[in-house]
Design brief:
This is Metallophosphoesterase family protein. InterPro entries: Calcineurin-like_PHP, Metallo-depent_PP-like, Pantetheine_PDE, Phosphoesterase_putative. The structure is a single chain. This protein has 269 residues and is an alpha/beta fold. The chain has a single domain, classed as Metallo-dependent phosphatases (Purple Acid Phosphatase, chain A, domain 2), CATH 3.60.21.10. The chain is built from 10 helices and 10 strands. The strands form 2 sheets. Strands 4-5-6-7-9-8 form a 6-stranded mixed sheet, with helices on one face. It has a 4-stranded mixed sheet with strand order 3-2-1-10, with helices on one face. Bound molecules: fe (ii) ion (2 copies). The site of one fe (ii) ion has 6 residues, from loops.
């Protein structure tokens, strides 16, 4: 069983920035790798409808089924709807892993959901109120992610869903996927980059990592969100994979054909 891992394709933004769709190049790369399934760890595009359109285009053009969990951009919405509405649209799509672990053979399960952030990565000297005010100034979720509840409560919901599903599949080896950073060593304070330091609280939750640390049957952990290609690293008994595509302004080249190769990895189960 071969899984191709992708994240943060931002198909809509990258189309705009490149002046052409990235779908043909990504599809042709998928055909070349010929995985049994593609797994995308969020941020396909902005809003659920666009995500679904790109998921279906990629599936049709590559001929390979895709499993998806939302990123923060996937649930962005205007004032007419709330983000749960976007989340539920994606949950109900055939590609979704939300509440529907993908069982592969007799041994493996792919378990995933969006995840969220809860300010556990804030600097020790920052109060919660300071995080909230920095979110307003520096982080676009403040305008477009509308949960009707606090970020910590969204994270609590995600943690409950992860725990329940991970407990229920203790008899299997697990590939875990969420959009956000589960480990604090991926969110170091920068000596130079002040904007990065401001947005660290919105990168993920160490509570997700703590949960995974208690689950030895989780052998692979996949995330995106941070647009830095950390690659695949060993962490105790797990392999941790972070291979986001990100925006063209963050790429080494302006060639999608080249970038998609370094923004992906294959897991063989
Ligand atoms: Fe992203
Ligand atoms: Fe993101």
């Amino acid at each position: 069983m071969k899984l191709l891992i992708l994240s943060d394709l931002h198909c809509d933004n990258n189309h705009q920035r490149l002046g052409k769709s990235i779908v043909p190049a990504v599809s042709s790369y998928i055909r070349e790798v010929a995985p049994d399934r593609v797994l995308v760890a969020g941020d396909m595009a902005g809003g659920a409808d666009r995500c679904i359109r790109y998921i279906e285009e990629l599936e049709q053009n590559s001929g390979v089924a895709l499993s998806y969990i939302p990123g923060n951009h996937s649930i962005w919405t205007d004032k007419r709807t709330d983000s749960w509405h976007e989340y539920e649209k994606l949950r109900d799509h055939h590609s979704s892993l939300i509440g529907k672990p993908l069982l592969l053979g007799t041994d493996w399960a792919v378990i995933g959901d969006m995840g969220w952030y809860d300010y556990t990565y804030r600097e020790d000297s920052w109060s919660r109120e300071e995080c909230v005010s920095r979110k307003e100034s520096y982080w676009r979720d403040a305008a477009f992610a509308r949960w009707g509840m606090e970020d910590e409560e969204v994270t609590d919901r995600m943690l409950d869903s992860f725990r329940t599903q991970l407990e229920a599949h203790r008899d299997r080896r697990v590939v875990f996927v969420n959009h956000f950073i589960p480990y604090d060593d991926y969110v170091p304070i920068s000596p130079r980059n002040k904007v990065w330091n401001m947005i660290r609280p919105f990168m993920g939750s160490s509570r997700i990592g703590d949960l995974l640390d208690d689950m030895p049957h989780v052998e692979h952990v996949i995330f995106g969100h941070v647009h830095y290609r950390f690659g695949t690293k060993r962490r105790g008994d797990k392999l941790v994979h972070c291979h986001p595509l990100g925006y063209t302004s963050e790429w080494q080249s302006q060639q999608i054909e080249k970038e998609i190769r370094s923004a992906s990895c294959v897991i063989k189960l």
